[in-house]
Every structure is written in C-alpha cells, then in structure tokens.
C-alpha cells in the first residue's frame, strides 16, 4: 500500500490506472477509521481492481462552533487498518495542499440541505460538495462508497453527481453497528461511559418506529411523538432533530408512502450522534 500526499501525483497514478483499463473504487473519509469505513473498503476491494481511501479532515464542512480541532486523528492507526483490509492507496493531503488559495469558484448546494443535519449546519454540505468534486477529479474513481449512516450526505452526493454529470457510480452501504445497535462512528470515542450505555436508545427508537409502521401507523407525527418520548426517557442527550421525510428527495410528508427516511441527531456532552432507517413502503393508489 502506498501513501500519497501530493495532488498531482495521485492524479497521475489514477490516470495511469485508467489507461491500463483498471477500475478504481474510492472511499472518501475524514480518518479515524472504524468498522463502518472498513466495510466500505471491503466492498470496494471486491468490486474494483484498485482501491483508494482518502483521509482528509475537510475544514470547509465544519462550522465556527463545531469540532474541527478536536476531531479524532490517528494516521498510523488508519494506515494499518487500511493496509490490513487490502487497500492499495491512501490519499492523505494536507489542508494547504487541498486549499492553497482562497477558491475563486465555490459550490452551493440548493436542495436537500434545509432539513436534518443541514438545517442546523448552514454551509456544511457546500463544504462537502466542494471537497468531493476535488476528490473525484483527483482520484478519478469508477465507484465511490458511502455509508448510509449519513443518508443526507448520500442524497446530496446523488444530486451532485447527477447535476454535474460526474461519471461515477455512488454505492450506498448499510450502516455498520455495534452489538447493541449503536451506529459506529468516529465520534463515539467522545461519549462518557454512561452516555455510551444510553446511546443504543437511538437505534431502539428507530426499531420501535419500524414496528409502528408495520402495524399500520401512517401518521408521521404520531411516530415522531413516540420516538421523542422514548429518547427523552432513556438518554440524557438533547434531541437536535427527529424527522420523517421522503428519500432521497428529503421532502416533508403528511402520510407515509414510497421510500422514506426516519432520521435523528442527538447531542450528548461531547458528541453529536446521528442515525436513521430507510424504509420502502407501497405508494397509496
């Protein structure tokens, strides 16, 4: 496995691989890899000739009061995990390499951002879209792998690729979970022991919502009321949002139909956790 820190070198390697007819699977990350990331790498390795993982904590997607400075970083650990997974290249640029000057062109995401995480993080997905366009142009992937834990990001990237005619296939991968159902995340290390015990309630509330829907409940507000009550009773976290929307369009619903997402964010003392469930329902005739 090779580590590349220079944009031009990574781009030249990718272009040479393309000339040789080799397919490239790409997993963009901000590092501190966990089993969720490794599941993406595993799928990419199976489906492509060459795999590339990027490790870059993108400053453009952090707000002024968010955790850029404290975001966990451990490149040696990440490199070891990626190599054990059979990864071929790590693209590990510095912020100065990725953004040497103030951009003369910026990306503004117009849709799918005024709900869920985007509602309380203005500009976040502009930063995500900007870095992904750069990474796609550098790595030249055939397929890009994203975990569905951040389903809003997958929806935004779906729109980005479609609107800009980027020749890449987006491959969503199911959320990797701990034994108690907690979605695996780099931020889980910031949970206090008592908060870690409580955090599985997020997943349990989603399973409760799925059961209500299976029993015939079709009113999103009734489901949301039950979910809020469960989380408030079983955690010390503060609910940022719980929403039920169409997916991937992320539009409000009065009755449940088609493909929907039930998504939430809950703030604990030093970590903000997100989770979701995507469910396909029959459309009303």
UniProtKB/TrEMBL annotation:
It is an enzyme of class 6 (ligase). One of its GO terms (molecular function) is ATP binding. Its main location: cytoplasm. The active site is at residue 37. (R)-pantoate binds at residues 61, 153. It is found in: Cytoplasm. It catalyses: (R)-pantoate + beta-alanine + ATP = (R)-pantothenate + AMP + diphosphate + H(+). GO terms for cellular component: cytosol. NCBIfam families: panC (TIGR00018). Homodimer. Catalyzes the condensation of pantoate with beta-alanine in an ATP-dependent reaction via a pantoyl-adenylate intermediate. HAMAP family: PanC. Belongs to the pantothenate synthetase family. This is Pantothenate synthetase. It comes from Sporosarcina globispora.
